[in-house]
Amino acid sequence: MHLAAALGVPVVGIFGGGTWPRFTPAADRGCAVVHPLPCFGCGWDCAFGDAPCLGEIRVDDVLRAVDRTLLATIGFAVHVVAHLSAETRAIMGKAADRYRSSASGHLARQHKLEELTALDREKDHEISALKTVCDEREKTIVILDGHVRQFQAENVTIKADHTVLVKTLAALPASAVNAARTISDQLVHIRNIESMLGRRAAEIAELQASVNNLAGGLHDLEQAKHYNRLLAQKEAAIQSLREGLAARAHVILQLSAEATTGTAKLRKAWIAATTQLQEKLWRPFSAWLFQCVVEDYWMQIGILRHYAPRALQWDERLPGPRGPDAALPQVAIVTPSYGQDRFIERTLRSVLDQVYPKLVYVVQDGGSKDRSAEIIARYASQLHHWESVRDHGQADAIKRGFIHMAAQLAPDAIMAWLNSDDLLAPGSLRFVAEYFNRHPDVDVVYGHRIIIDDEDRDVGRWIMPRHNPATLEWIDYIPQETLFWRKRAWDLAGGIDPSFQFALDWDLLARFQQAGCRLVRVPYFLGAFRVHPEQKTSQAIHTTGADEMRRIRTRFNGERQDDFATINRHARHARFWGAVTAQLHEVGIRW
Known about the structure:
Order of helices and strands: HEEHHEHHHHHEHEHEHEEHEEHEHHEHHH
């Protein structure tokens, strides 16, 4: 039909109600024959099994449409026929409603059953892993408790046994100086024992808190804390070994070079003193400071759950409108989507409900087999474009989405993409647009992140430090859902690279930075990142993600791309200053 219409050939089409009138041809001469029924819009899931909407169209009806089309000179008409009585139509409408209601309920129950089955398997796995952790911790608690009891018994025995005290005093040297030194050594030993008891008590309290959390159902939080402690210990050990080896190599080189000079002994002593000072003072102090500021604090960049779920509250201090609508730039957003009917509507609403006056919004669905296309279609009138077609992954979908709007965008237009399970903060579009207007030298901005679960509940927050270009060369830590950039930066960097499927946002940021763009972190929460079992970030970080991140580091650092000591140093730098920024944020200082 469409090919004939494009060639100017008259067209007659017989239509049922499955998708009416979605596929009527754009013909200059033609006619559509249709028998409207109350069950139209069924998507060819017929409540009656034999498509009465087609069966009631007769040969005479079609012949009349053919005659009308051949006699007409121009125009496309819809020939409506009606061969059923009003009573029959009313009965059919009720039957179709009952069928759709029943089918919808059955499908919902099936989806819920599948979801519960998947959750059950996941929980069984988590419980098994946590049971192992709990068994190990219980053994540790028993051992530590035995040590505490032993030390307490020894302490009581020492205090209560006067005979031991007398013997101890009698055994002291006759010299007062030597006796005082012996007593001082014993007091030091006692203080060491008391300090050990204090540490043991703190460890027992921490283990008891973990047991309480596990009993309260906070398995994810405890598992994250456990793995974070293991990683921190391993990272500290690796860092210490690397620094020690580097220091020794440096000392050897200096001693070799200066062995024949008159200052060799002096420099050797200076190097030894410096190394000893670093080993005994700076390194312990650095580890203690990182423990206090980062690891003992609730907000840690890199951790996806910080506390039990609570009601989502957006940033109340996000600045409101400051200028007229006419001065605002265009904001172009693409949402790549596939199989996210659970979340896609909340994502769309987070953008459209802001009513930004110059929004250009495209939704690029990859041919989802769930209800995603049906949900997106409800908002078609508010979208610049949407379609549901097969693509080659997320990066390809984003690239296609921006192609649909490229002709409409000015060089200073603002661009972003928002994944179909994330949210934008209310008012964020207006704030970002006005920020770019006030800072014409800025090309890219991003902000703080709220972490939400599949029920839109707040489970954590990333409060980002100020932008550090050196850190971006080694680790990907910028929240993608808070990221916005100018079109001129996009053109300068060359747009999205469709060969990336995991680290495509870090790749784009890296090319922004290499192209000389100015990146700025703003001190406000601009979006929410959703954590759920089907999430791509969780599934691919150790496979595709590791390979893609290595590609980006190689681009910056060449053969040093696997320098894990440097990677660890920049990760600790971002975590440390993020924690400092968060603590300032808590007292009202946006730094």
